[in-house]
Design brief:
Radius of gyration of chain A: 24 Å
CATH class of the largest domain in chain A: Mainly Alpha
Oligomer: homodimer
Shape of chain A: globular
Number of domains of chain A: 3
CATH architecture of the largest domain in chain A: Alpha/alpha barrel
Number of helices of chain A: 14
């Protein structure tokens, strides 16, 4: 399946459209300002010795995001900011093509000596930014610089093998090099990507750590392990390479890794990387809620991986996962006002647990989004993802148009015109008009128990395939439902969570009073659904129950089942938690059996 | 209420009797051997510079325990070990009376300079050992040494106020001084105890830290805070002093602190000090199960405190708490073979949670008891508690004999003869014969929903008071029942635990297969109770339920209540967990409503 790019498609209204606008109007500027304040922008002048090893990548991701915005919405001021950065990159790039602020200014003798230090990772993000800017503006000055850098890296790592390591300590450059190959047509970049991927877990110089997925040759990897962002960036590149080289062994590994993630290591919100120790995947089913790490970047990386898997294989599961991440564990990373960020996206906040004393504190994610972090990878990752959200909607394979996501949007490319009109995910009514294709394969989400599609169709791999039809309306049943987790997820045992459409819901104490754990919900329930303009989505008020108090005693004899009393439980979309001050929050509720 | 001492009473059979024997036959020797191997015994020769700041107290507690054993069971070899240590103490005690291995050998200039460093704590334990040995053997050589030391401490802290601090950083000496006053009759020691207690939270030299309960003057303290062992040792001394001085303000503080513990900060096992950060009390209702710290010593300290509260006030609640600790969270500290120890006594082991990687490990208590610890306070605390278990049974106030605990035992003192015959807590049948008292007040445990006492009686403060009756049989209903915790204890929300008599039960995966969280139990249930000779108590097999598997999917739509299947759940007494290899363990189970 080939994707239609963000330039070929456009969001025309609705929830995702609003988020795209929020990024363009607020977030892209907020991130720049924070990067300017923290010295990240100024560091490109090569005058400060404070540049952290990943600062190049932070700014590169912002430049990439700005480029996508500029492609559709010219903005002289924004373009000038990018141009100024490119001036500095051009000016400070080494004769040999090398570009890295930290190493050039602070560790001039350290170049290519420290594998974990993000050197190639920064290069990868600069490459992606350069491609994005060239593609968006037609100006290839930045890209030329980065091609020179890539050529130099090729020499160091392939021709000379002169670095102290063989593969990146933090993967990213691999997928950037595939992009560079695709954009420039230069096979050398694909070869370099393949070199890095194939040497991983093989090169003796690099050791064998599961933390950075070098514990095994990549084709032998079947379990998602180690640093979650590193992992999904690598798997994305593996899927890219599998597609380019028709490498079945690599594809098989990608499928195994994907299955391991979604069957054992993914939160209901699509969050991955449950453990804060090294920001890693944990053991299968180890999905603590309050301590969930689930970095925003890991969610974005999982979307990248799924998008590439969809290109490899037409199965709606990948689009289902993209949807789960997008509307839940990724969006939660951004505040409603577009200015503040979660790095970690927990599934529970119980302030009672957040104990500290002079001997330390129990470790928990922060409870309110912040405008800036010392490690600020997530904010610019949102900057570069949001302008391309439309890219996740439409795909083409032969004479079949794939509709993977639902949003009011237009596609006009390759002689194909498509228009989708919908308020999804506020409701499940989706009108699609398409011309120029023979077949339309529209995803029926796996969460959807019932749908109405009054045109002849067959079901295949999670898609309803319709032939010779230019207009139809699909209705997805958006009635709220309860979800139960695998009983091996002990932290969710005896619990339910609520989803409606793709939206996972949570409760906050700001709506429901203290002690959200005292609520119990049945698997089926009455509810009131109400559109909330601020959230752009529906809230739910469900008929639930509350455990009685125990007369201030700590323990009471339970002579009988508890006398639960009826109680209304107000639920909001998970993504919107923590936007009204510090509050307890819960996703998984006790089940009233 | 006055207690009858361990010398006046004797366990004559049954569960506690077996534990007393285990300590006398195995544990006292095992602890000595470990202390010898680790250099703690040898350190008394003052030749090694490796003595830790608390080593004196470790050995002193062992000496105290050995003394109680010697009082009733002469043992030349054991007595010789104590005598050899006393020889060394006598030989190495300073001219001025000072005795501390670490400071004398390693920090001769550091004496009385570092408040947190257990200097007075070690002294207190030496005092208790000396009193025990004198009382047990009639030989007062050790006590004379320690009186000299106490006199010296009086001079330093009361007369000269010449130390760098005013009160102990780790409380213990206060209660030891009250004991010394009671044994020697010298008021000076009571004054010194009062001095330390009254200066706490007042003395400017010491700062004001809640960690060691010096945040407020003791009479103003109402919340149990800080290091749990320090806290209950202090509260014990406060209760002692309140009794000796008839100090109502101090008594009121003790009652408030007791109420705070049992209503907000105590596990169902009687464990206290839920937080590993500084081994402290946490916030009210913060009682995590898997991470429970609940040090064995804190349980022992809570028993000390309750025993003293009972002396202050005739209310069975204190005896209820003693029973809860004794049969559950304290006994769990010792392996069935009497040789290995838990320092921490968690209420859940889920090995899935015990994740570690190169970036660290999630902190959890150890899962198997160990024979030795670098900080080895708990093992000798068991040594000194077990020989005196009989002391918790009988009390006297005026013409009323109080029966606080139930165990086959004899009392012969003050013209009173009592004999209790029972298999408690294997069953609830208790035959009591008493001569020489007018009234008998027998505790009706608060866990007991029904009892049979076929003699006229009135109920008062948790006791059934019987007049002019020399023999009766009390039958306590020992049918297993479920307990529900206060809904504010979020970690237990939607859960039940099972108790029968005073015994809290747990399940282990060694009996029930993996994933104990997949079980659900109703508030009322059928069961089979079976005596287990190895445990000395009953095991339970209850008719429970199991959640179904979810077809290997991580999440499924819960269209209806889960199809729970009937399942037998084997339960063993909590105290016996982790005696059959590493195993998951659970106390609080999902409730089937």
């Amino acid at each position: 399946m080939k994707y239609f790019t963000y330039k070929e498609t456009a969001l025309t209204g609705g929830f995702l459209y609003e988020k795209e606008h929020l990024n363009r109007d607020v977030t892209i500027h907020a991130v720049y300002d924070r990067f300017d304040e923290t010295g990240r922008i100024g560091a490109f002048r090569f005058e400060s010795d404070k540049a952290d090893i990943f600062w190049d990548s932070d700014v590169a991701k912002w430049m990439e995001g700005a480029s996508y915005i500029l492609a559709k919405h010219p903005n002289v001021e924004l373009e000038q900011k990018v141009e100024t950065l490119i001036d500095l990159i051009e000016k400070n790039q080494g004769e040999d093509g090398y570009f890295n602020i930290h190493y050039t200014v602070q560790e001039p003798d350290g170049r290519w000596t420290k594998r974990p230090n993000h050197e190639l990772y920064c290069a990868g993000h600069l490459f992606e930014a350069a491609i994005a800017y060239a593609d968006a503006t037609g100006k290839d000055r930045f890209l030329k610089c980065m091609e020179k850098y890539a050529d130099y890296i090729y020499k160091i790592f392939v021709e000379d093998d002169s670095a102290m390591f063989s593969t990146p300590g933090h993967e990213e450059i691999e997928l950037a090099l595939v992009r560079m190959y695709r954009y420039t047509g230069k096979k050398k970049y694909l070869d370099l990507a393949a070199h890095f991927i194939n040497r991983r877990g093989v090169a003796e110089k690099d050791g064998h750590s599961s933390y950075d997925q070098s514990h095994l040759p990549v084709r032998e990897q079947t379990e998602a392990v180690g640093h979650a962002v590193r992992a999904v960036y690598l798997y994305s590149a593996m899927a890219d390479l599998a597609l380019e080289l028709e490498d079945e062994a690599l594809k098989k590994a990608c499928k195994a890794l994907y299955e391991d993630i979604i069957n054992h290591k993914m939160y209901i919100t699509g969050g991955i990387g449950s453990c804060h120790l090294g920001e890693t995947f944990s053991k299968p089913y180890d999905l603590p809620n309050g301590e969930a790490y689930t970095e925003t970047c890991a969610g974005i990386g999982l979307m990248f991986f799924c998008q590439r898997m969809l290109a490899l294989e037409h199965h709606a599961s990948y689009a289902d996962t993209i949807e789960r991440v997008l509307y839940n564990g990724l969006l939660s990373g951004l505040s409603l006002d577009g200015k503040a960020f979660f790095y970690e996206n927990p599934l529970e906040i119980t302030m009672l647990d957040h104990f500290s004393n002079e001997y330390g504190r129990r470790r928990f994610p922060i409870t309110q989004r912040r405008e800036a972090f010392s490690c600020s990878c997530c904010p610019p990752n949102i900057n570069r993802l949001f302008p391309r959200l439309a890219e996740y909607i439409y795909g083409l394979d032969g004479d079949t148009l794939y509709i993977n996501q639902f949003a009011s949007s237009q596609l006009n490319a390759d002689g194909i015109q498509v228009e989708t009109e919908t308020n999804y995910p506020v409701n499940g009514n989706i009108r699609i008009r398409a011309e120029g294709v023979k077949k339309i394969a529209v995803r029926i989400p796996s969460w959807c128990a019932a749908y109405d599609l009054p045109v002849p169709h067959t079901l295949k791999n999670g898609y309803a395939v319709i032939e010779n039809c230019t207009e139809f309306v699909l209705n997805l049943d958006m009635i709220p439902f309860a979800i139960r987790s695998n009983p091996h997820v002990v932290k969710d045992s005896g619990r339910l969570c609520i989803q409606a459409g793709p939206i996972v819901y949570c409760a906050e104490s700001v709506d429901n009073g203290e002690n959200l754990h005292a609520f119990a919900i049945p698997a089926t329930f009455d509810y009131i659904m109400q559109f909330d303009k601020t959230l752009g989505l529906n809230t739910l008020t469900i008929d639930a129950f509350r455990y009685p108090d125990t007369e201030n005693k700590l323990y009471i004899r339970a002579a009988d089942a508890p006398k639960l009393s009826p109680a209304k439980l107000k639920l909001i979309p998970y993504y919107a938690f923590a936007n009204r001050g510090e509050s307890d929050m819960l996703v998984w509720f006790n089940e009233k059996i």
